[in-house]
Structure formats: C-alpha cells, structure tokens
Design a protein that fits this description.
Chain lengths: 119, 106
C-alpha cells in the first residue's frame, strides 16, 4: 500500500522558517518525481514544487522561488520542503505527492500537513 | 502565466451524465489530468493523459481534450461522486490547476 506521511507543519510567524518532511513507503521511491501541492483554507489546489528522481532538476511556482527549497533523500525514501521568509499567503495544507515519470500526473497524495503563518 | 478555467459549480441528478469543462489556451496540445476531492480528504487522480483511468477508478469516469477545452464526463452519476473536481496540466515545467468545480448530485 502506498503511503505518504507528511510532518513538520505548525504555526509560524511571518518571516519565519519551517521544514516539511514526507516519509514514503509502499512504492519504489527512486523512480518517481516528487512534488508538493498546497491548498489554502477553503480554496483550490496550487502546485508548489517538483523534484526529479536524482535531484538534478527542480521546479517551483513563481510565488515561492528564492524562498522555498525542495529536496529528497533517496536513501531514506523521504521528501522535504524548506520554507523560509514565510508570508501569510503561504498558509495552507501542504500535500506530498508522487508524480508519474512518464506522464507527470500526481498519482498518490499524502494526508497533508497544515502550515499557518500568523503573528 | 498559464490559466485553466472551470465552472465553479455543476449540478446533476442521480443516474444522469455530468460534464465538467476546463478551458485554457491550446489545452488540447497538452495532457490534462483530473482530480476528485471529497470534503476533508486528499485529492485522488481519476483521469490522466486526457482520457486514461487509473486502476480502481470506475468506468463511468471518462475524459476528452481538444482545442482549448478538456472535459471530464461522469456517466450514470452516483451520490458518492459528489465532490470538488480539479483539472491540471503542465506548461513549461510549471504545474497549473483549474480553480475547481463543485459537483452536486441531487
């Protein structure tokens, strides 16, 4: 059974930092691109970032470029999102998502972790 | 930036066919995916590569994509299909989601 378990969310002040983690199991992590997708309360889905299997390619939505960094550790089947200079508009549930290497569909989703940016 | 436009809501009677559209410039030149999200749950992939169904997705879900519009069709809609539906495509290595459509079955 595929499992993606996010952790690291919480309340942080504007300008602060947070690191999200995602533990993957039940599939061959090393053959998948991986992504983060977020959803603000009561709003729609927004793609945040994606990373290639070997970490040689990374892509970000414009609104987080220079502030967020996606990374992965294939030895630990883990995905990360380092978030710096957080803003109120970054408040959202962040989903860890596996991304098909052949067609880039978002195949499996974690349960999400809530990040709240507020003073 | 590339935008995908969906109707905010669609209503359908049980057993009837529901169609949800997704519009974007030359969308037919890209692959479109569709995701279903029920309240309090994570999204689930229901259509990929315009018209393919992942394992476990009922046959009543189908998709098409041509010109500037992709369409998700649910035949014989059931009450369990009531959910938010999001289309999604890639534009220059950037992921783009539509704003979502709330499907009401009544």
């Amino acid at each position: 059974e595929v499992q993606l378990v996010e952790s690291g969310g919480g309340l942080v002040q504007p300008g602060g930092s947070l690191r999200l983690s995602c533990a993957a199991s039940g599939f061959i992590f090393t053959i998948y691109w991986m992504s983060w997708v977020r959803q603000s309360p009561g709003k729609g889905l927004e793609w945040v970032a994606s990373i290639k299997q070997d970490s040689t390619e990374k892509y970000y939505v414009d609104s987080v470029k220079g502030r967020f960094t996606i990374s992965r550790d294939n030895t630990k089947n883990s995905l990360y999102l380092q978030m710096n200079s957080l803003r109120a508009e970054d408040t959202a549930v962040y989903y860890c998502v596996s991304q098909s290497s052949s067609n880039w569909s978002f195949d499996f989703w974690g349960q999400g972790t809530l990040v709240t940016v507020s003073s | 930036s590339y935008d995908l436009t969906q109707p905010p809501s669609v209503s359908v009677s049980p057993g009837q066919t529901a169609s949800i559209t997704c519009s974007g410039g030359k969308l037919g030149d890209k692959y479109t995916c569709w995701y279903q999200q029920k309240p309090g749950q994570s999204p689930v992939l229901v259509i990929y590569q315009d018209m393919k169904r992942p394992s476990g997705i009922p046959e009543r879900f189908s998709g098409s994509n041509s010109g500037n519009t992709a369409t998700l069709t649910i035949s014989g809609t059931q009450t369990m299909d009531e959910a938010d539906y999001y289309c999604q495509a890639w534009d220059s290595r950037t992921g783009v989601f539509g704003g979502g459509t709330k499907l009401t079955v009544l």
